[in-house]
Write a structure and sequence with these properties.
The protein is α/β, with parallel strands linked by helices and about 375 residues long. It is about 35% helix and about 25% strand. It has three domains: about 1-30; about 35-150, Immunoglobulin-like (Sandwich); about 160-380, HAD superfamily/HAD-like (Rossmann fold), CATH 3.40.50.
Length: about 375
């Protein structure tokens, strides 16, 4: 099993690089045939530093998904997401508070910025950075610009939330690779639905016990950056609190790796180190390695984790036994790992721990019931 996955991963990597090289040579000969676009990724920061990135791609007229799209349209849209034509060596200029900074995209079209504000940031949790493409430039086309949104946690925040996405917020069948692939390619941000009550739970955690804490939320996932716009639109459509999405490059071939820990663990540690005075709540699922990853995080940051919520998505006896052991390990650090069957269960525990207001329990419960009775949800869970 491991050998064929390794060979397949190597083959995909070689095909991806070959495709990139061919397209790069064609561009040198023919130039860019399509307009270019900047896709900024939601970033995060502190009063001392704003961190964000994005990608420069050819704009091939991608058509946004609609709830009525048929399977063939979803297939075409997903193909276009993964067949994106990146622009290596592009120069990007960022403007913030009157200062300017430049970055150059790598061979996959990615860029990143770390900007130090020169004036005290305003009270707005969301800061905006102006972006402009300096090169390459196309004749007789308007300047390519975009706005990068950067989340700076409020001083009122009592804790932060770090959540997985796949099989935690939305059903993705990560444990079954074939089902996962079919789920991704045959649906879109309109037709896929979150687990029942997720929006209510996450909004309650964001508001905190006082109802006005404005706690920041971060999403760390092994999904590829190619799905960024889909996931971002999904969060907006489902009214799930927005936050930075820390995904992976498709070249990592995370679909076939047996060790997703390094990406998640390293990003979680970066977040914790960026906000040393803020405790966190971690949310994941029991299907893959989230409980083990979070156990390791708690051991390294024993005073920083308020609670761990693991959505129960498997009843396999060996997996349940392993999680029971992890619950014991985590309890010895003074933190609780809670195996939750649904969002309402997690919300009740969070209210008892003073993480959310008890007044929000009714909202989580009603949203869970509403989600369970929507026609789209019933169709997807048959």
């Amino acid at each position: 099993m491991k050998d064929w996955k390794s060979r397949l991963s190597t083959a995909i990597d070689r095909a991806d690089k070959l495709s990139d090289n061919v397209r790069s040579r064609l561009r040198k000969i023919t130039g860019f045939n399509s307009p270019l676009m900047i896709i900024p990724y939601v970033g995060y920061g502190t009063p001392d530093k704003l961190l964000f990135g994005g990608r420069v791609l050819e704009d091939e007229g991608f058509i946004p998904a609609a709830s009525a799209d048929r399977t063939w349209r979803n297939l075409i849209n997903m193909y276009e997401r993964f067949e994106s034509d990146e622009v290596p060596g592009a120069r990007i200029r960022a403007r913030f508070q009157g200062i300017q900074s430049e970055a150059t995209t790598d061979e996959e079209g990615y860029f990143s910025f770390a900007i130090q504000p020169i004036r005290r940031l305003d009270a707005n949790r969301w800061q905006e950075v102006e972006l402009e493409l300096l090169a390459p430039s196309l004749a007789e086309t308007p300047p390519v610009r975009a706005i990068a949104k950067v989340m700076v946690p409020s001083a009122a925040a009592k804790f932060g939330i770090i959540s997985d996405i796949d099989d935690t917020v939305i059903s993705s069948n990560v444990g079954n690779k074939l089902k996962m692939i079919l789920t991704v390619i045959l649906s879109n941000e309109h037709t896929r639905k979150p687990f029942e009550g997720v929006a209510g739970l996450y909004c309650a955690l964001q508001k905190g016990a006082s109802g006005g804490d404005d706690n920041p939320i971060f999403y760390v996932s092994n999904s590829p950056w190619n799905l960024y716009t889909l996931l971002l639109e999904f969060l907006k459509l489902q009214k799930i609190p927005l936050g930075p999405l820390l995904l992976r490059d498709f070249g990592d071939h995370s679909l076939f790796t047996k060790d997703p820990e390094s990406h998640k663990k390293s990003n979680i540690k970066i977040i914790l180190d960026s906000f040393p005075n803020l405790p966190f709540v971690l949310i994941g699922d029991s299907g893959e390695r989230d409980p083990e990853i979070y156990r390791d995080v708690v051991k390294e940051y024993p005073t920083r984790i308020r609670a761990i919520y693991i959505r129960s998505i498997t009843q396999h006896p060996s997996r349940l036994a392993a999680i029971d052991k992890l619950i014991e390990e985590v309890r010895n650090t003074g933190t609780q790992l809670v195996l939750a069957p649904d969002s309402e269960f997690a919300a009740v525990h969070a209210a008892a721990e003073g993480l959310i207001s008890t007044a929000q329990l009714g909202t989580v419960r009603s949203e869970k019931n509403k989600d369970q009775t929507t026609p789209t949800q019933r169709a997807l869970t048959r």
